[in-house]
Design a protein that fits this description.
The termini are far apart. It is built from 14 helices and 20 strands. The protein is α+β, with helices and mostly antiparallel strands. It has 3 domains: 2-69 and 97-176 and 277-341, FAD/NAD(P)-binding domain (3-Layer(bba) Sandwich), CATH 3.50.50.60; 183-273, D-Amino Acid Oxidase, Chain A, domain 2 (2-Layer Sandwich), CATH 3.30.9; 350-408, no CATH class. Bound molecules: flavin-adenine dinucleotide.
Amino acid sequence: MEHVDVAVIGAGPAGAVAAGCLAGKGKKVVVIEKERFPRFIIGESLLPRTNDLLDKCGFHKAVEQAGFMTKGGAVFIKGDKRERFNFDERFGDGWDFAYNVPRADFDMILAQEAEKMGADIRYRVKVDNVEFHDDSATLSCSDLEANSQYSVSAKFVMDCSGYGRVLPKLLDLDMPSDLEYRESLFTHVKGDLRPEGREEGYIWIVDLPQGGWIWVIPFSNGATSVGVVAKPSVIKQAGESDDEALKTLLLQESSLKERLGNMEFVMPAIRIDGYSIGIKKLFGHRWILTGNAMEFLDPVFSSGVTLSMESAYKAQDVVARFLDGEQVDFQKEYSDYVMRGVDCFRVYINAWYENKLGWLFYSKRKPQSIKERICSVLAGYAWDENNAYAIDAASSLEAAISTIPPEYRN
Ligand SMILES: Cc1cc2nc3c(=O)[nH]c(=O)nc-3n(C[C@H](O)[C@H](O)[C@H](O)COP(=O)(O)OP(=O)(O)OC[C@H]3O[C@@H](n4cnc5c(N)ncnc54)[C@H](O)[C@@H]3O)c2cc1C
C-alpha cells in the first residue's frame, strides 16, 4: 500500500490550499478528487480576504494573470432603495477588491499551483471509505476511469470534500442547520447590461418582496452568473420549469428588468437545495474537516470560499506542526478560531433573513463608522479583533439595529 503524510479529500479551494501549503513544507501529500477538472461548481463571488490567503499560499500571481473580473464592492437593492458597500471605504487593513470567478477556471488554477508545489492530485478517483488506526488512516478509493480500487495509507486525513461531506457521513458528524430550508436556482447568462466604470464588477444582491433574493455576478469572459435563493414555495410559484421560474424571478424587479431584459441563458438552470448544514465537531483522531465539509451556512454574503480557504490554511498549519511532533491544541488553535468566523457570518445571515440587517443597510441614519465596520466583515475580515462588528457581531449589530426608528423598519 502507498504511504503518505497527508491524504486530502477533494481538490476545491480548501483542498488546493491545504495540499499546496503542506507540500510546500515538504510533506508527502496525495489529493483524491472524484471529478476531472475543469468542472462546474457554484460559488463565484469571492471576498477581499481571499486575496490575503492567495498571497499566503503563493497562488495569487497565477490568479492575477488569469484576468478575472475584479470588484470593488457590493450593491444591495430593495425596491427603489440601494446601498453600496465599497471595499475601499471600510475599517481596518487589507484588500479593497475581490475577484468574480467562474469556478471551473479558478479551481483549476489553484489545483495546478498546488501540483507545482508538489501535491500529487489524482483526478477521477473517489474516496469510498476511511478507517482510522493508532498512527494512520487507510483510505479506500475507486479509480473511476480504470474501474479499479486501491488504498492509501496516510498519517493524517484532511476532508476538503465540500458538499461530498465524506467524513461527516462516515463518522456521523452532520447536524441539522439552524438556518431555514432554502433552495437555489442559477445559471450563467449573456446580454447583461452592466453598469459602466467602477461598478462594472460589483455584485448585486436584490431583495424579492415575496422573500428570497437574487444575485448578479459579472465575469470578465462576458458572461454573468445569476441566481435566486428562496424558500421552495417562492420558486415553485414562479414557474413550471426551472428555467421559467428563474427567468420570472430574475425579471420581476425593475432594477433587474433593466439590466437583464435582453439576457440569454448560456446553460439550463441548475437547482440546489438543502445546502445549509451543521457539524458536531471539526477534528478528531488523525482527521480534520475544512471548508464546506464542515459547516455551510448560506450564500448571501459570499462567505463560502473565504471560509473554505481560511479554514484550510489554518488546518494545514496545525496538521503540519502535529506531524512534526509539536503539541497542538486543535480545539483552540483550529476549531475555536474557524468557528469565530463562521459564527460572525451566522449573525449577519440570521439578521439578513430576519430583515433587520436591511433596516440598517437602507437606513440613511447609520453613522459612517458603523457602515465601515460592517463593510469590513462583508469583505471577509471576520476575525479582526479590532472590529467589534466582527468579534462581537451579535451585540454590536443588535445595538446598531435598535437605533433605527420603527418608521424606518420596512
Ligand atoms: C447557491 C450557492 C451559491 C454560492 N455562492 C457563493 C459565492 O458567491 N461565493 C462564495 O464564496 N461561496 C459561494 N457558495 C459556497 C461555495 O459553493 C462553497 O463554499 C465552496 O465551493 C466550498 O469550497 P470547498 O473547497 O470546501 O469545497 P468544493 O468546492 O465543493 O470542493 C470539494 C471537492 O471535493 C470533491 N469530492 C467530493 N466528494 C469526494 C469523494 N468522495 N472523493 C473524492 N473527491 C470528492 C468534489 O468533487 C469537489 O471538487 C455558494 C453556495 C451555494 C449553495
